[in-house]
Amino acid sequence: MRRFSLYVLAFLALSCSRMETPQMAHVANVAPVPTPFPGPSNSLFDEINSLRRARNLPELVKNDALTCAAQKHAWDIGPRNVCTNKGTDGSTFIERVRACQGVATSELVACNYPDAKSAIVGWLQRADAGRILLHPNQVQMGVGEVDRHYVVVFLGM
Question: Rounded distance, CA 28 to CA 22, Å?
């Protein structure tokens, strides 16, 4: 029995000397986790700022919390092919931005446009959306786009 115990102790000692700590093994073997809401392309952001520059309005700064809320809403409505400012869970843009640790003043949604530039033209054809898009006191924005659904959340006014 004593000889068996020595073998077991020797085996454990050798095994433990080659083992990584559980934290090290976990970190070494885990692939990076993709973000649940892949970010939008910069086309919508760039097109809005291009329009604002052409009209001698200040460019808007990208805001991570607003982008988070805009992209979450785009991922909510795009795959379902619904076009609404209200989330499928009943959330408002204020609630979505708050969940992303931010504050906002307005949101625009455009659906089934072939590209960002077309969505902007659509907004400009609506007086209320055009006022929001071109308001001189807007300072920040976040954008989201999924499946030809475009969402912009603003801070300003």
Answer: 10
